[in-house]
Structures are given as C-alpha cells and as structure tokens.
Amino acid sequence: MITDRQKLQSVISKGEGLDLELKACRDQLPKSVYETVCAFLNRHGGTLLLGVADDGNVSGINPDALVQVRRDFVTAINNPLKLTPPTYLSIEEAELDGKKILHIYVPESSQVHRCNGRIFDRNEDGDFDITDNTALVAALYQRKQANYSENRILPHLGLDDLDRYLIAKCRKIASFRWEDHPWKDMDDLELLKSAQLYQTSSENGTSGITLAGILLLGRQLPLLNTVPHHRTDLILRKVNLDRYDDRDFVDVNLVESYERIMAFIHKHLPDPFYLEGTTSISIRDAIFREVASNLLIHREYTNAFPAKLIIEYGRVRTENSSRPHGFGRLDPETFTPFPKNPVIAKFFRQIGRADELGSGMRKMMKYSRAYGGADPELIEGDVFRIAIRVPEFNERQEAATPGSRPGTQVTPEVTPEVTPEVTPEVERMLRVITGEMTRGEIMRALVLKDEKHFREQYQQIAVAEGLIEMTIPDKPNSRLQKYRLTPKGQKWLKENRS
After folding, report:
1. pLDDT tens, position by position, 63-122
2. CB under 8 Å, gap of 24 or more: what pairs does 335-341 form?
3. Are residues 377 and 238 in the same domain?
C-alpha cells in the first residue's frame, strides 16, 4: 500500500497506465470501478485511487460519504453476482491537499474473473471487454493455467480430506478481524468456494478441491498422498555443524506449518525490547512473520525441492523452490514482488498471517537493520534465498539500559559486537589458517590426528563464535568444503598478535 504523501503524489503525476487507474468519486462509486478491478485481477494487478480525476486533479471524497463508499465497494467485490469469483481487497484512507481519497491495491489473480458476466482485460489505454473475442479469452485462460499450479482441481478429494476444525478456526479468526467478513455466515463448502479453494473447470466442468485447498487446510495423510514431497525443514545448527542441534520436520498443512515455523523461531531466537514511538513491539516476529509467509506462500509446489529454514550463529537462512522472474540479488527497497500463489496469499491475509503484497517486505527491511544490524539479503533464482543477520541470546541488549529515556527507540545497533571467547585450541587454529583450507589441511598444520577431538574442541567452537566460516555453508559435508577466517577472526588475530 502507498501511504506516504510524496509517493502518492509521485504516482498520480505519472498518469494512468497499465497498472494505475484514477477515478473521480465524490458521493458514490462510479460503476466502471468494478470493471477496473476485474481487469487488474485478470492482467498483472494495479493501483486504484478513488477521489482523483483522470487528469490527476485531487477532487477528494465527501467525508460524509466516505464510510458508505467503502462499504459499497467491499460489498460489491464480495458479491458473486457482481464479480465472479469474488475477491477480498483491503482499502486504505489517505489525505492529499486536505482531501480524503481511497487507495486500493489489486493483486494479480491466478484465475479469470468476470464483472457482471463479462471478462475485462487491461492495456495502457484502460479496461476493455474481451468476452466475445474467443482468441483473447483462450489466451487469458492458458496464461493463468500455465503460471499458477495452485488452481489445479483434485476431484478425488472431498471435504472429509480437509481439517474441518481448522476451517472453523479460520472462519472465526477472519470474522474477529473483520466483523462483517463474508465467511462469517457461510458453511464450509461456501467458504471454500468463496476463498477459491473449491473450483469448477471452465474446460470440462469438473469441480473439486484445488491444490491450494489441500495445501492450506488438508489433513496430513490426504495432503501427503497428494503432495508427497511437501515439507519444510527447520534446523538449528550452531554447535554440531555436521548435523544439527535441533530440528523440526514440518509436513502438515500450511496454516499449521506457519504456527510450527513461528514456534521454532520463538524457541531459538531472542526478542530484544524495542520501542516504536511509545509502543513496545516484537521486531523478531515482524521480521519472521514475513519470512515464514514467504516460505509457504511463494513456493512452487510442483517442485520437489524441500523448503528450509536454518538458524546458524548470527544469521538465519531460508531456501524455497520458485518460479523466478529474474535472477540474482534483489534490492528490497526497489523490487516489485510477484504473487506466485495469489489464492494461498489471499487466504493467509484473511487470517492475519500475511501482509499486503510488498508491505511485509518493507517491514522486514526496516526491522532487520535494528534486529541484526544489517539489511536482509534476497537472491532470486530457481531457488529463492533469504539471509538475515540476527542477535544471539548472550549478546548485550542496548534497548532497555538503566537511565534511558522512556519512549526512546532502540538504535539499529541492537547487537553490538562482543569479544569472542577464544580457547587455547581455537587460538592455535586461527594462527595456522591461511586463505581457504580443508579440514584435513588444518589438522595437518596443527599436527592433529583425532578428527572428533578436532571437530569438538576446535572447529565447532570457532564457527559458533563467528571466527571462521565454511566456504560452502549450504553443504556442510561437501567433499569440497573449506574453512576461512571471518572478518571477526581476522580482527581478533590482529589485536592479539604475539
């Protein structure tokens, strides 16, 4: 969501285009607004600003009509007689030049939508009706089917293959977050259809639960029978670098997987005191809520590559299979996120497990600097990777020192560097490492033959203290594995020359 005043003005100044529509709206919604929503859903998504004329003039919405305009919009897009399939969009109020406007972000959908029975698409000139153009409609359906595996219908599955208690729980959460949420009065099948987890094929009329449905709400056995490779591997690896110190093998549905991931995070990562204004918030949860969502929402589930979250000394790494739209390191400040599983993402937003597309990433960027003192690293490819610096439990926290003024915000240096505990064995090893060396080369330099003794008294302690690092951290047991001094190890050597 664009809430910053300067950014809004910048967006408006660029004028209408493929992903921006401006609509004058004084006392009631223009009828064409629903055609625009339909077109954005069918194309690549976009931003809709109500209360701004198409020439960029901010006319504003009558403050007395604002509540009714919002209510009418939400009611209509949730009405299958108006928009099919219905959708859920969040609306943000903003103010420009002293006038109220409404800002709506419409993400791309993984399905073809109709407005009043007509199919609309989008180009630079605006919305256009393609219903009677057989070739364009066929191309639209083919593009959606090729890009989004989450909509694959599984007719062999029934409601009994889903966790009905979990469905009731999600209905309750959504109704608690939004008092008039449409799920509130729906039975289970109606809810599944509304959330697009139960669909009917436009090609052969087959109906059934979709891949997204079984992934989100499935009972474990039917889920694993359908997607046998589905799992998220949670690993703590700080002392025992050859294997792990703790592990959770998560192969349940995505709603429960999210809870297991966050429980693992709570167990193994500190949560330093942090004030935002005068309110204490958990920056750990703000960061890893987005990380957990990314692992589950933006994964390509037709790929058998297992997702991983690995907690190491001073950092957390994640990996998940992806359908890349580019390759290489991303700039979180500028990149545009692409919804890889819009149906799954939308369901997560309804139950408060994910933010609007892009806003969660901005939070992760903002709080990572305060939490670990560095920006997160995001690398896109066939495997999407994230690396986040994190503090350790034994590191001094500056946020709540005696005498600090109440209400002051913690500085980004939440985790100042501490002097490592260097044993005589580790000191000997640091002094013999030159460049990149294998384990065998280091042992020979130390005149050691007992591999277990070397691993436990030298290698593991040095890695845990951040003094040396592996050259291939993703594959601890690789035959090509080597070790080198970290900047922290080099600094210690420099300060302790003898």
Report:
1. 888 888 888 888 888 788 888 888 777 788 888 878 888 888 887 787 788 898 999 999
2. 335/378, 337/361, 339/45, 339/107, 339/108, 339/110, 339/298, 340/297, 340/298, 340/299, 340/300, 341/110, 341/148, 341/150, 341/212, 341/297, 341/298, 341/299, 341/301
3. yes
Given the structure tokens 């946020």, which residue do they identify?
399
Q: Report how many domains make up the chain.
A: 4
Q: How many residues does the chain have?
A: 498
**Domain annotation covers residue 109:** yes
| CA proximity to 339, closest of 351, 347, 331 | 347
Residue 43's domain spans which residues?
1-147
Residue type, 336: T
Q: Are strands 20-23 and 46-50 parallel, antiparallel or unpaired?
A: parallel
Per the domain annotation, does 398 fall within a domain? no
Query: Distance (Å, rounded) from C-alpha 312 to C-alpha 244?
Result: 10
- For residue range 159-172, what is the model confidence (pLDDT) as tens digits? 999 999 999 999 99
The pTM for the full model equals 0.60
Nearest CA among 81, 147, 83, 77 for reference residue 120: 83
